[in-house]
Q: What sequence folds into this?
């Protein structure tokens, strides 16, 4: 009896090497500007071309500025990387969504919203958060630059099949508890290495109740648990989200696709290598205190005794301190984790009719041009501006300090992104991860605040 992961993986195996890896066919390759230049140069040096260019999509997102996108990129390294991707895409005949494209954005946001990521697919990208696309019921994972070249040349990759893990979350998430809180809670329980070597299937009532945007957030953070990736079996939520998307099947092809997608579920007697169960009632809004995504507590909690000396010294915290009321300097809403329209709706539900704290610098960055358009068409832009916030243009922004959006040294940034490593958002910056609702409540007060008190 097979799991959904087994069904998708096994149906894509081209060859198996005895006591070695398997040759896996890849349905979709996404390329961004940071991990692809050497891969394209490798093709060029060997006189090769992409085997199936129609299955490859290119998009700059990491190095892109979030202001003045209509002007040349100031930083020479960033400008070079973006221009190199554009040239490579043109030379090899690949679909390219540049900064001037209405379809541009973060590749892990654009892929699902355009229907490029579909159930049953194998999807790879030279980026660890490719696990995001597993939310539609796909096997999606990040790869290295040499593997990007391998897929470009052969549309296949050599991989050892991961073990399987099922994480079941029973019950109903409470007030202001989001998919981001669920993921941070899971990491606080199993650690950032607890799923190493596994591919996770998320299941249970609480997972099924998530919107597609919430599922994308949860699967995005699978890599932060050490997993190779994560996925959720497709259901009516998936089908409703994908129907009518530009690259989704149409007409009779849609009906046939849905019938197949309905078969993509783990069979009742399927055996997983490891299983975990959690109760949604135990989860509250979360915030991190340390320098890895697993170092988190419920927002009403205190920094635990097992916090390490190094992370406490870096963050300027002490054991036993409350997280509520801690001063913050920056708020970042965005990234491939929380840059979707639902995240901006949640943020606005807290700040509507209120005013931003004058002591907080807030960077609100849509995950794509489409999200940017939705923000304005739904009137969310007006709500944000009336509350004292400004919107930036789409891009990875302050998630990883590869562009101009860097948090200054020793400043505290409450961030909806995915990683809080030392210097992740800028040299010596201090990052606390949270949900859009916690970010909104805290942006209003200037200190870490509980959104349940405002909503």
A:
């Amino acid at each position: 009896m097979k799991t959904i992961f087994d069904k998708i993986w096994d149906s894509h195996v081209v060859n198996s090497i005895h006591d070695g890896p398997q040759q896996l066919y890849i349905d979709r390759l996404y390329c961004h500007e940071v991990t692809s230049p050497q891969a394209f140069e490798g093709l060029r040096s060997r006189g090769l071309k992409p085997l199936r260019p129609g299955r490859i999509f290119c998009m700059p997102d990491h190095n892109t500025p979030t202001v003045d996108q209509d002007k040349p990129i100031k930083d020479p390294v960033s400008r070079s990387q973006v221009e190199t991707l554009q040239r490579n895409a043109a030379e090899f005949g690949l679909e390219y969504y540049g900064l001037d494209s209405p379809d541009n954005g973060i590749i892990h946001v654009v892929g699902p919203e355009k229907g490029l990521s579909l159930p049953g697919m194998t999807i790879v990208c030279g980026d660890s958060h490719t696990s995001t696309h597993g939310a539609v019921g796909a096997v999606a994972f990040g790869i290295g630059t040499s593997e990007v070249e391998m897929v470009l040349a052969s549309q296949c990759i050599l991989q050892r099949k991961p073990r399987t893990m099922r994480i079941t979350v029973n019950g109903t998430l409470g007030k202001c508890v989001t998919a981001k809180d669920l993921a941070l809670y899971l990491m606080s329980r199993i650690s950032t290495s607890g799923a190493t070597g596994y591919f996770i299937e998320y299941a249970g009532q609480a997972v099924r109740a998530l919107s597609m945007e919430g599922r994308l957030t949860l699967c995005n953070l699978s890599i932060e648990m050490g997993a190779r990736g994560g996925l959720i079996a497709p259901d009516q939520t998936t089908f409703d989200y994908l129907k009518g998307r530009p690259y989704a099947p149409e007409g009779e092809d849609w009906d046939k696709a849905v019938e197949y997608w309905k078969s993509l579920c783990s069979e009742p007697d399927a055996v997983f290598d490891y299983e975990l169960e959690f109760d949604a009632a135990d989860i509250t809004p979360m915030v991190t205190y340390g320098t890895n995504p697993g170092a988190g507590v419920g927002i009403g909690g205190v920094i635990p005794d097992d916090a390490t000396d190094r992370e406490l010294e870096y963050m300027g915290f002490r054991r036993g301190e409350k997280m509520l009321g801690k001063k913050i300097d920056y708020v970042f809403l965005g990234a491939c984790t929380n840059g979707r329209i639902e995240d901006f709706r949640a943020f606005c539900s807290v700040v509507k009719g209120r005013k931003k704290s004058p002591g907080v610098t807030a960077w609100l960055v849509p995950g794509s041009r489409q999200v940017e358009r939705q923000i304005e068409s739904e009137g969310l832009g007006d709500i944000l501006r009336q509350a004292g916030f400004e919107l930036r243009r789409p891009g990875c922004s302050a998630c990883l300090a590869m562009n101009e959006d860097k948090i200054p040294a020793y400043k505290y940034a409450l961030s909806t992104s995915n990683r809080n490593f030392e210097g992740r958002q800028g040299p010596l910056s201090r990052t606390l991860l949270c949900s859009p609702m916690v970010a909104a409540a805290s942006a209003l007060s200037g200190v870490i605040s509980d959104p349940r008190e405002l909503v």
Remarks:
- Residues 4-159 form a domain with the Aconitase; domain 3 fold (CATH 3.30.499.10).
